[in-house]
Design a protein that fits this description.
alpha+beta; Nucleotidyltransferase, domain 5; 2 domains; five-stranded mixed beta sheet; 8 helices; binds zinc ion; DNA recombination; DNA binding; coiled coil
């Protein structure tokens, strides 16, 4: 099956490459804003927009007037224009708001370039990009497939990234004849029917604490600057701290993403049938004091990774109904105890006397229910 995969890596451009990246971002923004201006004017006068092809022809003319546009990747400029045309199309279809001018002060600065005539490639630990040549890459995993496009991005922390979209042919994975149930918990990130627990909150909690501390420091810096009558844009201590906080946020995000990728791949490799609760509804029922936004985001990201990987590799995901009382049933004898409050972490079945860990028992029930619904289908 042909699928599209996205990869994101840190890149380490040289000083010259950094300058060229900054120029390309600047030129892409210039092209976007200039044609957006024309587009807006035309729209006001005629009620209609321009077309990509007419603008594209004009861009060629524009390069004669502004010769510095020729210094940068021409495909990036075309992409910027295409992006504008697409935004306007969506706006006319009422799918989004009218496109807005891009600002130098936007949090994330980026440009996108497309593959043509093998202008992009991964060469060892480097990526070949148009005009830039080879850029050092922190390649945390192998890139498989044909590169379709690449987006070069500079984050507020001053770090550079590349996102690569590839098209690749994936083969179904070998069947393992194994099924598993997963309970997405509160104390543990995930609890599995085979008895093991995945706890990711040790590192996120530690990072969160640090993040909170640095964020408080940031507000103090903002106040100091205000008291001294310095504009935040010129307050060096504030700006330095702002970059630090952005870097921390990024690290938390990357670590979490990495963790979820590895975990989901592992599960898909080892099991044919994966039974899981239907999250959309679980979110509504959960006690909000306990639920942290961070786990909400991770859970839905985790489930979506499981879902697309299952599709790619020929595995099955079974979602269990919200009404299924996974934590009320004894997985050993089937006796239904009734609702248990969240403080009860373990209990003994009054009928078969089996002692249960609350979450492992729930995941075993989820597995049994998943297999049952699958057999009915
Ligand atoms: Zn029992």
């Amino acid at each position: 099956m042909l699928v599209k995969k996205a990869y994101k890596f840190c890149i380490y451009p040289s000083k010259e490459q950094e300058t060229l990246i900054a120029k390309t971002i600047g030129c892409s923004r210039f092209v976007f804003n200039r044609f957006l201006g024309q587009w807006n004017d035309t729209y006001k006068e005629t009620g209609k927009g321009l077309t990509y092809s007419s603008c594209s022809a004009e861009l060629t003319q524009l390069k004669k007037e502004f010769v510095w546009l020729k210094e940068v990747d021409s495909i990036a400029l075309q992409s910027s224009l295409k992006n504008l045309a697409d935004s306007y199309t969506r706006f006319f279809k009422k799918q989004n708001k009218a496109p807005r001018f891009k600002s130098k002060k936007n949090q994330v600065q980026s440009y996108t370039t497309k593959e043509t005539n093998s202008n992009m490639a991964i060469v060892d630990n480097k990526i070949k990009l148009p005009k830039l040549g080879l850029v050092r890459l922190a390649k945390s995993r192998e890139v498989e497939g044909r590169i379709l496009n690449a987006t070069v991005r500079r984050n507020p922390s001053g770090k550079f990234f590349v996102s690569i979209l590839v098209e690749t042919d994936v083969q179904p994975l070998k069947k393992t004849e194994s099924s598993i149930g997963i309970d997405l918990g509160i104390t543990d990130f995930a609890v599995f029917s085979d008895g093991h627990k995945m706890d990711n909150h040790t590192f996120t909690a530690k990072m969160e604490k640090k993040l909170k501390r640095e964020q408080r420091k940031l507000s103090r810096r903002a106040l100091q600057a205000k008291n001294k009558g310095i504009h935040l844009f010129d307050a060096q201590n504030y700006q330095k701290q702002k970059r630090k906080v952005a870097r921390l946020h990024e690290r938390v995000r990357n670590q979490r993403d990495d963790f979820l990728h590895k975990l989901s791949t592992d599960i898909i490799k080892n099991h044919d049938v994966i039974c899981i609760e239907d999250l959309n509804t679980k979110g509504m029922l959960r006690n909000h004091k306990l639920a942290k936004s961070i786990s909400d985001v991770s859970w839905s990201a985790f489930v979506s990774k499981l879902e697309y990987k299952a599709k790619w590799y020929g595995k099955t995901i079974v979602k269990i109904s919200r009404w299924f009382p996974s934590s009320q049933i004894c997985s050993e004898c089937g006796h239904q105890e009734g609702k248990k409050s969240l403080e009860i972490r373990d209990w003994t079945c009054p009928i078969c006397h089996k002692h249960h860990d609350r979450d492992i028992n729930a995941s075993q029930n989820i597995l049994a229910e998943g297999v049952r619904t699958l057999d009915l289908a």
